[in-house]
Amino acid sequence: MSKSVAIFNQKGGVGKTTTNINLSACLAKLNKKVLVVDIDPQGNTTSGLGVDKNEVEYSLYDCLIDGVDTKKAIIQTYIDKLDIVTSDVELAGAEVELANRKNRELTLKKVLNQVKNDYDYIFIDCPPSLGMLTINALAAVDSVIIPIQCEYYALVGVSQLIDTIKLMKKSINKDIIIEGVIMNMYDSRTILSKQVVEQVKNYFKEEVYNTLIPRNVRLAESPSFGLAITDFDAKSKGAIAYTELAKEFMNR
Ligand code: ATP
Ligand code: MG
Protein backbone atom coordinates (compact mmCIF):
# COMPACT_ATOMS: atom_id res chain seq x y z
CA MET A 1 0.00 0.00 0.00
CA SER A 2 1.16 3.46 -0.83
CA LYS A 3 2.11 5.97 1.85
CA SER A 4 2.32 9.74 1.40
CA VAL A 5 4.39 11.96 3.65
CA ALA A 6 4.78 15.74 3.90
CA ILE A 7 8.17 17.04 5.00
CA PHE A 8 6.93 19.94 7.06
CA ASN A 9 8.24 22.70 9.28
CA GLN A 10 7.16 26.30 8.71
CA LYS A 11 10.59 27.39 9.91
CA GLY A 12 13.01 28.05 7.04
CA GLY A 13 16.32 26.33 6.46
CA VAL A 14 15.88 23.37 8.80
CA GLY A 15 16.56 20.70 6.17
CA LYS A 16 13.17 19.94 4.59
CA THR A 17 14.53 19.93 1.06
CA THR A 18 17.78 18.17 1.97
CA THR A 19 15.72 15.44 3.62
CA ASN A 20 13.27 15.23 0.76
CA ILE A 21 15.96 14.75 -1.85
CA ASN A 22 18.14 12.35 0.09
CA LEU A 23 15.57 10.26 1.93
CA SER A 24 13.64 9.64 -1.27
CA ALA A 25 16.83 8.89 -3.22
CA CYS A 26 17.93 6.36 -0.57
CA LEU A 27 14.51 4.69 -0.55
CA ALA A 28 14.58 4.41 -4.34
CA LYS A 29 18.00 2.78 -4.06
CA LEU A 30 16.47 0.36 -1.54
CA ASN A 31 14.17 -0.67 -4.39
CA LYS A 32 11.09 1.35 -3.45
CA LYS A 33 9.14 3.23 -6.10
CA VAL A 34 9.12 6.86 -4.96
CA LEU A 35 7.48 10.08 -6.16
CA VAL A 36 8.71 13.44 -4.93
CA VAL A 37 6.30 16.34 -5.20
CA ASP A 38 7.84 19.80 -5.02
CA ILE A 39 5.21 22.19 -3.66
CA ASP A 40 7.71 24.91 -2.75
CA PRO A 41 7.86 27.73 -5.34
CA GLN A 42 11.60 27.97 -4.59
CA GLY A 43 11.86 24.67 -6.52
CA ASN A 44 14.96 23.52 -4.61
CA THR A 45 14.03 19.84 -4.68
CA THR A 46 13.50 20.10 -8.42
CA SER A 47 16.93 21.58 -9.13
CA GLY A 48 18.58 19.51 -6.38
CA LEU A 49 17.58 16.35 -8.22
CA GLY A 50 19.14 17.64 -11.41
CA VAL A 51 15.96 18.64 -13.25
CA ASP A 52 16.23 21.71 -15.48
CA LYS A 53 13.05 23.75 -14.87
CA ASN A 54 13.29 25.24 -18.37
CA GLU A 55 12.87 21.84 -19.93
CA VAL A 56 9.78 20.88 -17.97
CA GLU A 57 6.56 20.86 -19.99
CA TYR A 58 4.06 20.56 -17.13
CA SER A 59 4.78 21.39 -13.49
CA LEU A 60 2.72 21.01 -10.32
CA TYR A 61 1.20 24.42 -11.04
CA ASP A 62 -0.40 23.11 -14.22
CA CYS A 63 -1.92 20.18 -12.32
CA LEU A 64 -3.21 22.29 -9.45
CA ILE A 65 -4.55 25.25 -11.39
CA ASP A 66 -5.30 24.01 -14.89
CA GLY A 67 -6.23 20.43 -14.06
CA VAL A 68 -3.49 18.89 -16.22
CA ASP A 69 -3.35 15.11 -15.88
CA THR A 70 -0.82 14.30 -13.10
CA LYS A 71 0.83 11.59 -15.20
CA LYS A 72 1.75 14.24 -17.78
CA ALA A 73 3.68 16.18 -15.13
CA ILE A 74 5.68 13.24 -13.81
CA ILE A 75 9.35 13.32 -14.76
CA GLN A 76 11.83 10.50 -14.25
CA THR A 77 14.88 11.70 -12.35
CA TYR A 78 18.37 10.36 -13.07
CA ILE A 79 17.79 7.87 -10.25
CA ASP A 80 16.05 4.64 -11.14
CA LYS A 81 12.62 4.34 -9.41
CA LEU A 82 12.58 8.01 -8.39
CA ASP A 83 10.10 10.32 -10.13
CA ILE A 84 9.24 13.96 -9.51
CA VAL A 85 6.48 16.47 -10.09
CA THR A 86 8.37 19.73 -10.34
CA SER A 87 7.77 23.24 -9.11
CA ASP A 88 8.81 26.68 -10.28
CA VAL A 89 8.15 30.31 -9.30
CA GLU A 90 4.77 30.21 -11.02
CA LEU A 91 3.59 28.11 -8.09
CA ALA A 92 3.74 31.19 -5.83
CA GLY A 93 0.71 32.45 -7.77
CA ALA A 94 -1.20 29.27 -6.97
CA GLU A 95 -1.25 30.33 -3.32
CA VAL A 96 -3.59 33.19 -4.27
CA GLU A 97 -5.40 31.47 -7.13
CA LEU A 98 -6.40 28.52 -4.96
CA ALA A 99 -7.79 30.82 -2.28
CA ASN A 100 -10.85 31.60 -4.39
CA ARG A 101 -11.78 28.03 -5.19
CA LYS A 102 -14.26 25.60 -3.78
CA ASN A 103 -12.63 22.74 -1.83
CA ARG A 104 -9.36 24.59 -2.27
CA GLU A 105 -7.61 22.63 0.50
CA LEU A 106 -8.18 19.33 -1.28
CA THR A 107 -6.80 20.28 -4.67
CA LEU A 108 -3.42 18.56 -4.22
CA LYS A 109 -5.07 15.47 -2.78
CA LYS A 110 -7.07 15.09 -5.99
CA VAL A 111 -3.92 15.61 -8.05
CA LEU A 112 -2.08 12.88 -6.14
CA ASN A 113 -4.96 10.42 -6.01
CA GLN A 114 -4.53 9.93 -9.76
CA VAL A 115 -1.10 8.34 -9.28
CA LYS A 116 -0.97 7.26 -5.64
CA ASN A 117 -1.21 3.56 -6.39
CA ASP A 118 1.79 3.66 -8.72
CA TYR A 119 4.19 4.36 -5.84
CA ASP A 120 5.34 2.90 -2.54
CA TYR A 121 6.01 6.37 -1.16
CA ILE A 122 5.13 9.92 -2.06
CA PHE A 123 7.09 12.74 -0.40
CA ILE A 124 6.04 16.38 -0.51
CA ASP A 125 8.55 19.16 0.05
CA CYS A 126 6.65 21.94 1.84
CA PRO A 127 7.55 25.63 1.64
CA PRO A 128 8.52 27.44 4.88
CA SER A 129 5.05 28.86 5.51
CA LEU A 130 1.59 27.92 6.70
CA GLY A 131 -0.14 29.13 3.54
CA MET A 132 -2.54 27.41 1.18
CA LEU A 133 0.17 25.27 -0.46
CA THR A 134 1.27 23.83 2.89
CA ILE A 135 -2.37 23.26 3.91
CA ASN A 136 -2.88 21.39 0.63
CA ALA A 137 0.14 19.23 1.41
CA LEU A 138 -1.11 18.45 4.91
CA ALA A 139 -4.57 17.64 3.57
CA ALA A 140 -3.15 15.19 1.03
CA VAL A 141 -0.86 13.02 3.16
CA ASP A 142 -1.02 10.10 5.56
CA SER A 143 1.73 11.48 7.77
CA VAL A 144 4.27 14.20 8.44
CA ILE A 145 8.04 14.17 8.91
CA ILE A 146 9.33 17.14 10.87
CA PRO A 147 13.00 18.07 10.43
CA ILE A 148 14.41 20.09 13.30
CA GLN A 149 17.76 21.84 13.32
CA CYS A 150 20.03 21.20 16.31
CA GLU A 151 20.26 24.80 17.45
CA TYR A 152 19.35 26.86 20.47
CA TYR A 153 15.94 27.92 19.12
CA ALA A 154 15.03 24.40 17.94
CA LEU A 155 11.64 24.26 19.63
CA VAL A 156 10.56 27.80 18.82
CA GLY A 157 7.60 27.54 16.45
CA VAL A 158 7.03 23.86 17.21
CA SER A 159 3.80 24.49 19.13
CA GLN A 160 2.42 26.40 16.15
CA LEU A 161 3.41 23.49 13.94
CA ILE A 162 1.65 21.00 16.21
CA ASP A 163 -1.45 23.24 16.39
CA THR A 164 -1.58 23.23 12.59
CA ILE A 165 -1.46 19.42 12.49
CA LYS A 166 -4.17 19.24 15.19
CA LEU A 167 -6.33 21.61 13.19
CA MET A 168 -5.95 19.39 10.13
CA LYS A 169 -6.91 16.39 12.26
CA LYS A 170 -10.07 18.13 13.44
CA SER A 171 -11.11 19.30 9.98
CA ILE A 172 -10.01 17.88 6.66
CA ASN A 173 -7.53 15.10 7.46
CA LYS A 174 -8.59 13.25 10.58
CA ASP A 175 -6.17 10.36 10.04
CA ILE A 176 -2.96 12.41 9.72
CA ILE A 177 -0.17 11.35 12.07
CA ILE A 178 3.39 12.38 12.85
CA GLU A 179 5.60 9.88 11.06
CA GLY A 180 8.77 11.02 12.74
CA VAL A 181 11.03 13.86 13.78
CA ILE A 182 14.50 14.20 12.26
CA MET A 183 17.31 15.92 14.14
CA ASN A 184 19.36 17.67 11.47
CA MET A 185 22.75 19.39 11.46
CA TYR A 186 23.82 17.44 14.51
CA ASP A 187 27.36 18.19 15.67
CA SER A 188 28.64 15.45 17.95
CA ARG A 189 31.42 17.75 19.24
CA THR A 190 29.07 20.22 20.85
CA ILE A 191 27.17 19.92 24.10
CA LEU A 192 24.48 22.13 22.59
CA SER A 193 23.63 19.52 19.94
CA LYS A 194 23.24 16.83 22.60
CA GLN A 195 21.10 19.13 24.76
CA VAL A 196 18.83 20.01 21.86
CA VAL A 197 18.30 16.32 21.01
CA GLU A 198 17.40 15.64 24.67
CA GLN A 199 15.00 18.58 24.69
CA VAL A 200 13.30 17.52 21.46
CA LYS A 201 13.07 13.90 22.70
CA ASN A 202 11.37 15.14 25.87
CA TYR A 203 8.80 16.82 23.70
CA PHE A 204 8.27 14.27 20.91
CA LYS A 205 9.33 11.09 22.78
CA GLU A 206 9.79 8.04 20.53
CA GLU A 207 8.67 10.00 17.48
CA VAL A 208 12.29 11.19 17.13
CA TYR A 209 14.34 9.00 14.78
CA ASN A 210 17.41 7.36 16.31
CA THR A 211 19.39 8.31 13.22
CA LEU A 212 20.84 11.79 13.60
CA ILE A 213 21.74 13.73 10.44
CA PRO A 214 25.17 15.30 10.97
CA ARG A 215 26.22 18.73 9.84
CA ASN A 216 28.13 17.75 6.73
CA VAL A 217 29.37 20.15 4.09
CA ARG A 218 28.95 17.51 1.37
CA LEU A 219 25.19 17.62 2.01
CA ALA A 220 25.24 21.35 1.33
CA GLU A 221 27.32 20.95 -1.83
CA SER A 222 25.47 18.12 -3.55
CA PRO A 223 22.34 20.06 -4.70
CA SER A 224 24.41 22.44 -6.82
CA PHE A 225 25.56 19.38 -8.78
CA GLY A 226 21.98 18.11 -9.07
CA LEU A 227 22.92 14.94 -7.24
CA ALA A 228 21.66 13.09 -4.19
CA ILE A 229 24.33 12.74 -1.52
CA THR A 230 24.75 9.00 -2.16
CA ASP A 231 25.80 9.79 -5.74
CA PHE A 232 27.78 12.92 -4.93
CA ASP A 233 29.87 11.37 -2.15
CA ALA A 234 28.79 7.88 -1.16
CA LYS A 235 31.30 7.69 1.67
CA SER A 236 30.37 10.99 3.31
CA LYS A 237 28.78 11.06 6.75
CA GLY A 238 25.67 12.58 5.19
CA ALA A 239 25.26 9.69 2.73
CA ILE A 240 25.69 7.10 5.47
CA ALA A 241 23.20 8.87 7.74
CA TYR A 242 20.48 9.23 5.10
CA THR A 243 20.85 5.56 4.13
CA GLU A 244 20.41 4.62 7.80
CA LEU A 245 17.43 6.95 8.09
CA ALA A 246 15.79 5.37 5.04
CA LYS A 247 16.08 1.94 6.66
CA GLU A 248 14.71 3.24 9.96
CA PHE A 249 11.84 4.91 8.10
CA MET A 250 10.96 1.64 6.33
CA ASN A 251 11.10 -0.41 9.51
CA ARG A 252 8.81 1.84 11.52
P1 ATP B 1 13.46 26.26 3.20
O1 ATP B 1 12.63 26.47 4.41
O2 ATP B 1 14.07 27.51 2.66
O3 ATP B 1 12.78 25.45 2.16
P2 ATP B 1 14.70 23.85 4.07
O4 ATP B 1 14.02 23.59 5.35
O5 ATP B 1 14.22 23.11 2.89
O6 ATP B 1 14.73 25.40 3.73
P3 ATP B 1 17.33 23.07 3.28
O7 ATP B 1 17.25 23.86 2.03
O8 ATP B 1 17.27 21.60 3.16
O9 ATP B 1 16.25 23.57 4.31
O10 ATP B 1 18.65 23.42 4.09
C1 ATP B 1 19.02 24.78 4.33
C2 ATP B 1 20.51 24.95 4.00
O11 ATP B 1 21.28 24.18 4.90
C3 ATP B 1 20.88 24.48 2.61
O12 ATP B 1 21.90 25.29 2.11
C4 ATP B 1 21.38 23.06 2.85
O13 ATP B 1 22.30 22.66 1.86
C5 ATP B 1 22.03 23.19 4.22
N1 ATP B 1 21.94 21.94 4.98
C6 ATP B 1 20.84 21.24 5.31
N2 ATP B 1 21.12 20.17 6.05
C7 ATP B 1 22.47 20.17 6.22
C8 ATP B 1 23.40 19.32 6.92
N3 ATP B 1 22.99 18.25 7.58
N4 ATP B 1 24.71 19.64 6.86
C9 ATP B 1 25.13 20.75 6.18
N5 ATP B 1 24.32 21.58 5.52
C10 ATP B 1 23.00 21.31 5.54
MG1 MG C 1 13.22 23.79 1.19
Describe the structure.
This protein is an alpha/beta fold and 252 residues long. It has one domain (3-191, 204-240): P-loop containing nucleotide triphosphate hydrolases (Rossmann fold, 3-Layer(aba) Sandwich). It is built from twelve helices and seven strands. It has helices at 16-29, 44-48, 60-66, 70-73, 91-99, 107-113, 132-140, 158-170, 191-204, 217-221, 229-232, 237-251, and strands at 3-7, 34-38, 74-76, 82-85, 121-125, 143-149, 177-184. It has a seven-stranded mixed β-sheet, with helices on both faces. A hairpin with a 5-residue loop joins strand 3 (74-76) and strand 4. Helix 3 (60-66) runs parallel beside helix 5 and helix 6 packs across helix 7 (132-140). The longest helix has 15 residues, at 237-251. It is globular, with a radius of gyration of 17 Å. The model has no long low-confidence stretch (mean pLDDT 96). Bound molecules: adenosine-5'-triphosphate (ATP) and magnesium ion (MG). Magnesium ion is lined by residues 16-17, 40, 44, 125.
N- to C-terminal separation? 15 Å
CATH hierarchy class name: Alpha Beta
Query: Segments where pLDDT lies below 50 for 5+ residues?
Result: none
Helicity, as a percent range: 40-55%
Task: Label the structural class.
Answer: alpha/beta
Indicate the CATH architecture.
Answer: 3-Layer(aba) Sandwich
CATH-derived topology: Rossmann fold
Bound molecules: adenosine-5'-triphosphate, magnesium ion
What's the mean pLDDT score?
96
Number of strands: 7
